[in-house]
Amino acid sequence: MMKGVRMLLKDDDDLWAMEDEILRGGEVHRNIQCLVDYIVLMKKARDTMQKSAQCHNSGKLGELISDSVDYLKDLLQRKSELFSDPSLRYLFLLNNSYFIVQMCEPSTLLDVELLSVQPQGLKLTPECQKHMDSYLEVSWGHVVSCISTSNFRGLLRRWINTSSLAQFQSAFHKTYQAQKFWKVPDPQLRSLLRETITKIVIPGYRGYLKEHPELEKEVSGGSSSPDDLEEMLGELFEG
Q1: Are 38 and 68 in contact (CB under 8 A)?
Q2: CA distance 181 to 232
Q3: Are 39 and 73 in contact (CB under 8 A)?
Q4: Is the pLDDT of residue 19 over 50?
Q5: Alpha carbon separation from 53 to 43, 48, 56, 211 (Å, rounded)
Q6: What are phi and psi of 117, to 5 degrees?
Q7: Which of 65, 194, 198, 232 is most buried, judging by how many CB atoms fall within 10 Å of its CB?
C-alpha cells in the first residue's frame, strides 16, 4: 500500500510545484495529508490485529508504520527545498511537521522531557521547535535589528534614530504584507506564532520609542504605533 504511494510521489516534483496556491501559503500539503491518511489507516489496522488472533503480525505492521513515518519526514524535508523563500519554507516545515506528529505520533506529545512546552500549554517536539525558531529568525530577526542603539548626540543622533525608525517600519510592513495571507491551519499553533512574533517585535519597539521621545511625531497620527503593529500581527496566518 505505502509502496504504491511512494512511487507516485517520490520523483514527481511537478505534482508539488504546480500547486502554487497551496505552496505559497505554507499550509499542510494535500500530498502530506494523503500519506498521513494511509499511516493512520495502518495504525488502526495494527490496533485491530493486536486485539485479534493475528496479533503476531502486528509487529511487522508496526515496523512498516515506523518506516513510513520516517519516509514521510524525509519526503517533507526534500519537498520543502522547492521553496525559494526561506520564511515560507520554514513555515511549511512547521505546519506539516506539527500535523504529522499530531496524527501519526501522538504518543510523542506525552513525553514532556522531550518537548518544548509553551505558555499556552501547546507542546512542540524539538523538530517543530527548530522549524519555528528558524522561521522567526529569518522572518522577523532583521526587522528588530533595524532599531539600532546610538551613542551620538544632537542632530546626528536624531538623523540616525529617524533613519533606523524608517528602516524598521519599512521592514515590518514589507514582511507583514508578504506573509499576511500565509496560513497556519491549527488554531493553537497559529495563536502561538502570533504571540511569539508580538513578543519579539513589539516590546523592543515600545522601548525604542520610549528611549527616543523625539520620534513621537514620526509615529503619531500614522499606522505604525506599537498598538497598530500589534493589532496587525494578530491578523497573520488566517490564509
Answers
A1: yes
A2: 12
A3: no
A4: yes
A5: 17, 10, 8, 73
A6: -90, 120
A7: 65
